[in-house]
Amino acid sequence: MISVSAGTMVAAGASPKISAHGGHSGSFCLHAADSLEALVQAYCEQGFSRVGLTEHMPPPAPNYRYADEVAAGLTVTQMETRFCAYVAEARRLQRQYAGRLQLDVAMESEWYPGAAEQVRRLCRDHRLDYLVGSVHHVGGVNFDFSPQDYDQAVRHCGGIEALYRAYFDAQYDLIVTLEPQLVGHFDLIRLFDSDYRQHLELPAVAERIERNLAAIRQRGLTLDLNMRALLKGATEPYPALPLLQRAVALGIPLVPGDDAHRVADVGQGIDQAYRLLAELGALPVCWSPTRISPKDVPC
């Protein structure tokens, strides 16, 4: 499992060294660009000391493919093969850059019917270093690929509040079922919602947020301080500031992630992440995962 301890406070503006949610590359993800090796080289050149490679898991069924994967005609079998190639290339780079950059070969989850079994199998078969637990679907409907997909998810759930409730319920199920070492972009559900602050404060939503944060704390998990939101035009990261403040108050560890999708994204927002942690009085964590063994994969 993950060992996380408080590190020395990083001064505002200091060069950051960790991205636990390192994101995706064009080698293995259609909505990303540039090769995985190019991204790793960029991290190395920027002086990072530790980076997690976190490619998306392949789906267990074709109806859970992303829109670009459907358009490209990728089959489930092809995506499984692509994921195997990702792990092989990531392990090669892990060996090649040893001594210059600590690379961890991880995976970003999905959550829908059949996801738990798929996650467990992939973690076991590929001996992944850790798991990023993320939710991109509600009721089996993907909500984060485009505003149109988001609107479809709202309609599917019967309204925006129902969407938020369903999202945080799905996230809770993921947390207690898989206990992912890193909980990814906690409030991603606000991605295409300009009124997200008021929706996060709705009593039924706020209760679920508090429940999920308590579950994270009780299980000793870590929150992804995901800075990619800033690249998409947001004014605050995931989690939003009120949720971030609550997580800090609960003593939940946070670790920065740039969630890069191309070389130009590498390191983006990480300086802000460390400044924000300093302003909140939260010590940056030392992210030190150990490889998942089959017995560590929840059954």
Automatic annotation (TrEMBL):
EC number(s) reported in the record: 3.1.3.15
Domain PHP span(s) in chain numbering: 24-226
One cellular-component annotation, GO: cytoplasm
Membership in a protein family: Belongs to the PHP hydrolase family. HisK subfamily.
Organism of provenance: Desulfuromonas thiophila
Coiled coil: none
UniProt keyword terms in alphabetical order: Amino-acid biosynthesis, Histidine biosynthesis, Hydrolase
One GO MF term attached to the UniProt entry: histidinol-phosphatase activity
Name recorded for this polypeptide: Histidinol-phosphatase
GO BP, sorted A to Z: L-histidine biosynthetic process
Classification via Pfam families: PHP
Annotated catalysed reactions: L-histidinol phosphate + H2O = L-histidinol + phosphate
Lineage: superkingdom: Bacteria
Pathway entry: Amino-acid biosynthesis; L-histidine biosynthesis; L-histidine from 5-phospho-alpha-D-ribose 1-diphosphate: step 8/9
